[in-house]
Specification:
Elements lengths: L2 H13 L2 H8 L3 H15 L4 E4 L2 E4 L1 H25 L6 E7 L3 H14 L4 E7 L2 H9 L5 E6 L4 H10 L2 E9 L2 E5 L20 E4 L22 E4 L2 H10 L4 E3 L5 H4 L3 E5 L6 E8 L6 H15 L1
Parallel strand pairs: 3-4, 3-5, 8-9
Antiparallel strand pairs: 1-2, 5-12, 6-12, 7-10, 7-11
Helix pairs in contact: 1-2, 1-4, 2-3, 5-10
């Protein structure tokens, strides 16, 4: 086993493709494939699963990747300390539902740990894709919520993917509305108060199940309903159409301004927001730091 082989594995996992990784590494695709096959034979494991749809990490491969990253990181620290070598670009990815605090934490992470070069990714995406991203190690961390309604389905998916959920906070449901919306003047809003206004929600694409919805009470029928793909569009519609969306009540004025406010929703529900990661796989330095940044962002 060589340090170069470990770097090859990391690059393939990051790109999700032997071909793309070979281009980045400036070697031929057969040479990269052979190097990884030699490592798998030496370690007596299958690091990657190869199908007609492409390549993905196996269960054993996800654990191996965690150790490989630690070894390469330590080797780079040694080189930087004793050979005065230039540190390699940092890598870290997170997939999340559309939460402003997740973006705030990412900003803090980059400000504190960003070197001259880094390759980071923040994916605000669909619930099912968050689980798939972490399962395949495309992202080290995923952020989503559980509650009594979706918990059984989501936890079953996490268990089958060998992932674990760690709670960050539990919140009571709120609606987000424009400060010009009449509901903004109320101290608490009832379900029946929402009927005249457009309900805004995030589209879940192919997996548009009630259980994958980012908004609780997803089975409610709305006279006016609009689905969107990104947070900026949703917030623009909150203001432009006097719409509303249901969320945690955690909002960032730094990112979203003061035109949108949370108002408590009068329902007997709770939202448990947390992060998911691979079981028995230690977080990287940036992964650990991002979790701490999440906690600080929520506290703020």
């Amino acid at each position: 086993m060589t340090l170069q082989q470990l770097k090859y594995v990391i690059e393939v996992a990051n790109r999700g493709s032997i071909n793309e990784a070979a281009k980045r590494l400036f070697i031929s695709q057969p040479s990269l494939s052979n190097a990884i096959k030699d490592l798998e034979e030496e370690m007596n494991i299958s690091i990657f699963e190869r199908t007609n749809k492409g390549i993905s990490l196996s269960k054993e491969g996800a654990e191996f990747l965690s150790y490989a990253r630690q070894v390469v990181e330590q080797a780079e620290l040694l080189e930087s300390r004793y050979l005065n070598a230039k540190p390699s670009p940092q890598h870290f990815s997170v997939s999340t539902q559309h939460y402003a605090f997740a973006v705030n934490a990412f900003v803090s992470l980059v400000q504190e740990y960003g070197q001259d070069e880094y390759e980071l990714a923040l994916r605000e995406t669909k619930t099912y894709e968050i689980i798939e991203d972490v399962k395949s190690m495309r992202s080290e961390i995923g952020i989503l919520y559980l509650n009594e309604f979706n918990g059984k389905v989501i936890n079953k998916l996490l268990k089958s993917a060998n992932l674990q959920f760690t709670s960050l906070f539990t919140a009571k449901p709120h609606i987000f509305v424009s400060i010009k919306n009449p509901l903004a003047k109320q101290s608490i809003v009832k379900i029946e108060d929402l009927q005249p206004y457009p309900n805004l929600s995030f589209d879940q694409g192919e997996y548009n199940s009630f259980h994958f919805s980012e908004e609780i009470l997803s089975t409610l029928i709305h006279k006016k309903s609009i689905r969107v793909n990104d947070r900026a569009t949703l917030f623009n519609l909150l203001i432009g159409l006097n719409g509303y969306t249901i969320s945690t009540g955690v909002l960032s004025s730094d990112l979203n301004g003061n035109e949108i406010i949370p108002v408590p929703l009068d329902v007997n529900e709770s939202i448990n927001v947390g992060w998911i990661s691979h079981k028995n796989v230690a977080l990287s330095k940036l992964g650990t730091s991002y979790v701490e940044a999440l906690k600080q962002a929520i506290g703020q």
